[in-house]
Amino acid sequence: MYILGINAYHADASAAIVCDGRLVAAAEEERFNRVKHCAGFPSRAVRYCLDEAGIKPQELTHIAIARDTRARLDKKILYALKIPQMALRRMGPQGKFLTIKAEVAKALDTDPRRMAAEVTRVEHHKAHLASSFFVSGFGEAALLSVDGLGDFASTMWGVGKDNAMTIAGAIAFPHSLGFFYTAITQYLGFWKYGDEYKVMGLASYGQPEFKDEFARIVRLEGQQRKPRFNLGLDYFIHHKVGSQISWDEGAPVVGKLYSNYLEKRLGAARDAGSAVEERHQNIASSLQARLEDSVLSLLNQLYRLYGVKKLCMAGGVAFNCVANGLIFDKTPFEEVYIPPAAGDAGLAVGAAFYVNHQILGRARSFTMDHAFWGPQYTNERIGQALNRKIIAGRLSGCGLRITELSDEEIARETAMRIADGKVIGWFQGRMEFGPRALGNRSIVADPRRAEMKDILNSRIKHREPFRPFAPSILEERVGDYFDHSYPSPFMLMTYRVKPGKRSEIPAPTHVDGTGRLQTVNREQNPSYWRLVSEFERLTGVPVVLNTSFNENEPVVRAPEEAIECFLRTRMDVLTIGNYLVEKV
Length: 584
Ligand SMILES: [Fe+2]
Description:
By secondary structure, this protein is α/β, with parallel strands linked by helices. 36% of the residues lie in helices and 20% in strands. A nine-stranded mixed beta sheet has the order 15-23-22-16-17-21-18-20-19, with helices on both faces. A five-stranded mixed beta sheet has the order 3-2-1-4-5, sandwiched between helices. The chain has a five-stranded mixed beta sheet with strand order 8-7-6-13-14, sandwiched between helices. The N and C termini lie far apart (52 Å). The structure holds fe (ii) ion. Fe (ii) ion is lined by residues 124, 128, 147, 150, 315-316, 344.
């Protein structure tokens, strides 16, 4: 039984393959075509998935596509009458879903008539929920998907038990916590797809001074019986002009969401590129506080419905790790699973597992306890890539030393260089699925050096100074450094760093004393665990600073991309497979 899951014609196009109930491979198209958040058809990711599974196109039994154009037809028709241009915009991509098998066949260079695979459409939020619950390892859990917009809904909830989910409700367009966050992100002058992260970082610098106004922008009051919120629509325009998300086989572009009334109430919007002032910090803080209140309110209402202590979340808002970090303090939930690709890339995994369990009724046998589902490269292949660069003259004559080492040596030698203040490109094993680098395609550095944040920004990342870097900590030592010890393997939780430890790891400690941590598990990622352990042996600190291996581009996938990024930027060391490449 081979199920190919696909997220296509939507942000973060991706593919995943599930073989006999187990995930075998998953990857975003952006890693192959190098277009961030690419929203076309994931041809190369599809090819990779079949290669990794070692199967021919004819062997696929199912294709699961994460979109059901039939969902919420009544609401769509209503809005089509009100906003004809929105209906027209939506028709383009919807037409493409009719030919999905032909697209898969084209990507795999085969005749669609030779493919017996049955095509199933899975509604956006059902795929989000499936991407979390069916791989969570939880036998029973409350389920929440919180998002911008997918199949005309922004939010969905229900309960999962064994191999089935019961969907209890959804919140439809135009009410959306994702759009709320994006609207204020735009207002604050950040217009690129995915810029919400910047505002989440900025929020920690401000005070929620505009709390009362934001309580009118998202309304929560008086709706205690089931998960619900309402946007104050005066502050927005998307309900009048439609959701304006467009792409040209590239990254999605989201049209303006906020209204003139919002500017009237909060003051003029910030121009992109102008100075970030205290007022902007306070607006970001008020936004974040309202988002937290809203998500926690949904969760508490969800708990009241089911009384189950385990929670599975997904959807773009589930990337708000600051809100996630409050779940244990502010709701009765005791265990939380959020998959590494909680956003739309994860829809490919969710759609495939939805078919496997919800439709075919097969029993569960798989837990996604790590994020390493992408391509990997042998030492031989890495050596060839290095050789090719040498032959091309890119590695010779510019003061480089290449050493081949054993697994133990590579961890020890790299840890020594981190402790010496060097900036390391760390490339090992299979690429991560999801936006966070989790120790296989990472840039690592010394967390004890407060100046490391500025060094990384000036040399490689060029990020806004208010954005924090993340700590990777040995899972067994989390409780020593943070106020919670519940594992955060996918860097989706922000906890408070214990006051006594903040001066020990200043570089990845945010201005408000928190850290968006990744817990490193010995079994799940042995090579990265060895690296952090070696660093602890040398320094007494079981933490390294971790940021993604890239420079204003999708995270590197292949050795060539890593080598190029290393040469282009001012990284000191590249540890790639068993090779240590140093600028000397
Ligand atoms: Fe989504």
